[in-house]
Amino acid sequence: MKRLVILGGGESGVGTAILGKKQGYEVFLSDFGKIKNNYKEVLLLNQIKFEDGGHTEEKVLNADIVMKSPGIPDKADIVKKLHKKGIPVISEIEFASKYAKGKTIGITGSNGKTTTTMLTHWLLKSGGLNVGLGGNIGKSFAWQVAEDNYEYYVLELSSFQLDGIIKYAPHIAIITNISPDHLDRYDYKYEKYIDAKFRITMNQTKDDYLIYDADDEAIQNWLKNNKTKAQLIPFSITQKLKKGAYLKDNKMEININEEEFIIETGDISLEGKHNLKNAMAAASVAKLMQIRKATIRESLANFQGVEHRLEKVLKIGNVQYINDSKATNVNATFYALDSMTTQTVWIVGGVDKGNDYSELMPLVREKVKAIVCLGVDNKKIIDAFGNVVDVMVEVDNMTDAVRTSQKLAEKGEAVLLSPACASFDLFENYEDRGKQFKNAVHNL
Questions:
Q1: Does 112 count as an annotated binding residue?
Q2: What is the pLDDT of residues 423-434, one digit of tens each?
Q3: What is the distance between the alpha carbons of residues 382 and 349, in angstroms, rounded to a whole number?
Q4: InterPro entries, per this entry (predicted)?
Q5: Is 113 annotated as a binding residue?
Q6: What are the chain's domains?
Q7: Residue 111 annotated as part of some ligand binding site
Q8: 114 annotated ligand-binding residue
């Protein structure tokens, strides 16, 4: 019996444990931190051995194969020891894909991947396909492979999940865009991060597809200098394309397999240029999967969007409060500020991942009247924008951030939570940060 050891007792770890047991492995799960009670109950119920609060080396280093949760860096001691012993360390996606009967649509990128993943799933489901949703969101891929029998899986894939693949190949891959993010995990080398994203296409064949943003410099450069066997389907909002998706006279046109699909941009429920690109990518998948045009049109018109991503919370005293907690990097915040049509009080800050704030300068000058810093260490933000805005306030909790913003915002203006940073200094994760923001707004 092969021994499968799992590092990390969160969603992907527990899902992999369930699938591993079903596939006849001897399973052991080890978490350096505390495992949440709901996951402990699942492990106990399924009679899976586990430990938390530290790794017992002799129980980990005797594995035949190890699944490492995406949050654990390669620099962790236990991972280094596994590599030294030559024990394969893979991601949940790699492990689960071996047992998945259905085809996968894999979606990666620095920004827009959650929206694109949810929208793609929505289009395929509306089109009557038997389709699951997983990866970085929702129920883990491995858990679904163990318990559900989907014909297709739409997976949101982070660069960390792609780092741990060996043979995994999605039938359709999407790269929404690439901008510097998580550079702390890639020795602060942008090229390493770009290469990690492109691992999504490394095992694809000529029968597979790669959908990508043709306006993105990092993507274009990689494709010029590297080869993929997949059929290329670009999308663009700046140029007309022979094949793929593009903009023409306020219409989105998609040309795939000699067949054309056209929709007025005003009929798409998601707002903003970046969302137009997300819609192009998702609709390209729907076209490849031969979903009816009327269904695609209808589904693009009634899609509701993603929680914590430019989510309009409430209007109080004619001030619009917007929750963009999911913006954990500068590029995501760029989109948020770009989409603001009024003067804005901007709540920003958290754990900086090597951010360069200079690209936000023109937008901050034009649209931001005051900045509320919400983080343990705000020095970089203060240095960047101290001379650009008139008012700058530091707070260390969400209630104060929202109350301060209310005092600063006037009628017809907006309060935007778009942190451009990770949330781990003051919150559990970006969802917790977003929920606290919404609660604080409702309590005003």
A1: yes
A2: 888 999 999 999
A3: 10
A4: Mur-like_cat_sf, Mur_ligase_C, Mur_ligase_C_dom_sf, Mur_ligase_cen, MurD
A5: yes
A6: 3-90 (3.40.50.720), 94-302 (3.40.1190.10), 311-442 (3.90.190.20)
A7: yes
A8: yes
